[in-house]
Amino acid sequence: MNKYWSPLVDELSPYTPGEQPKVDKLVKLNTNENPYGPSPKVLEAIKQATTDSLRLYPNPDSDQLKQTIANYYDIEPEQVFLGNGSDEVLAIAFQALLKHDDEERPVLFPDVTYSFYPVYCGLYEIVYDAIELDELFQIRLRDYLKPNSGIIFPNPNAPTGILLPVDAIAQLLEENTESVVIVDEAYIDFGGESAVSLINQYPNLLVVQTLSKSRSLAGLRVGLAMGNADLIEALNRVKNSFNSYPLDRLAQAGAIAAFEDTDYFDETCQAIIDDREDLVSALEQLQFKVLPSAANFIFVRHLRLDAEMLASQLRKRGIIVRYFNKARINQFLRITVGTLEQNQLLVDAIVDILQTKD
Ligand code: PMP
After folding, report:
1. N6-(pyridoxal phosphate)lysine-modified residues are where (predicted)?
2. DSSP string for residues in 3-24
3. What stretch(es) of the chain map to CATH 3.40.640.10?
4. Which fold has domain 40-261?
5. Ligand 1 pocket: which of 208, 210, 299 to mutate (most atoms <8 Å of CB)?
6. Of all protein residues, whose CA lies closest to atom 6 belonging to ligand 1?
7. Per residue in 51-104, pLDDT tens?
8. Where are the alpha helices (DSSP H) in the chain?
């Protein structure tokens, strides 16, 4: 039979997202959403936008939002790019900045890392080399100093949660001047320092962020990238070739309010950091090994119990966490830091599982 699609489609192995359960009662600690909800000022701004002018197209360039972000980071609005979640921003960045097919100069990213990167490479037919993390699950930057057509990694890395200091990124940029370096800062606000401070110094640095995690707006779908104005222009050229309105009116209004309400942002990020440290202590007492996390999730391994079994036993008790059936990390679970109450439910459920097993 004729196939009415490209051979590429048969070869794709699409990204498998974390489960979004159909029932409400589960304690959902599997996709790193923020347990505290967005700022009340964001909800107010969105409500206002619904009554104002949904009849009209939105501002195609999200000018006011770009200005708000530029003010927040002390950069120029021409250094800001926006998309429908950072997954879309990353997709455009892969297409605009990393799309090469030079076998001698693959795109480099870590193994283990965000599992969307190899998917984009498959989609855009990009040659890549996934570089193993070191024995402590850290990114070893000297492994990236070889001919390449671009380097990308999350900071903190996902799903490990391990942070690279901004000085190390500056060091990499000093040595890697021939290709772009993309730092995916989806989880940077939970104790890390952003590399945005380096964009004026290094024209090949692109920093990608999202409002899904620290600003608790996963449902609104707003992602951004910041870098030299020429890099941002390259992203705009690709974006304008397939979608002139990446952000709707509600997303623009909500995102502006989210960047303006710095008090709420600081308080909720700090609460998550504090709760993370308490959760780590509680799990260590239950014989878990926890990788050092600067994110709103932790990556943990029990000294005796099998990770897949633990995930399924937790699910039976109404709690979902993330299990990756992948070499090297198949004895780990990634657990989102929830509310105090959710974290306690998790700890209680683990105690229950341990008692049942003994
Ligand atoms: N980067 C990393 C490292 C992530 O874990 C995620 C969340 N799955 C994203 C980007 C994308 O987040 P969003 O599309 O919600 O902005």
Report:
1. 213
2. --S-HHHHH-----PPP--SSS
3. 40-261
4. Aspartate Aminotransferase; domain 2 (3.40.640)
5. 210
6. 186
7. 878 889 999 999 999 999 999 999 999 999 999 999 999 999 999 999 888 899
8. 7-11, 40-52, 63-73, 86-97, 116-124, 166-175, 229-239, 249-260, 262-285, 307-316, 340-357
- The alpha-carbon radius of gyration of the chain (Å, integer) is 21
Instruction: Tell me if 162 sits within 8 A of 295, measured CB to CB.
Output: no
* Paired tokens of 15: 């990204």
Task: Give CATH 3.90.1150.10 domain extents, the chain.
Answer: 7-37+263-357
pTM of this structure: 0.95
Does the domain formed by 7-37+263-357 have CATH 3.90.1150.10?
yes
Structure tokens that stand for 326 in this block: 């992948």
Q: Which two tokens stand for residue 295?
A: 């994110």
Ligand 1 atom having least distance to the Cα of 159: 5
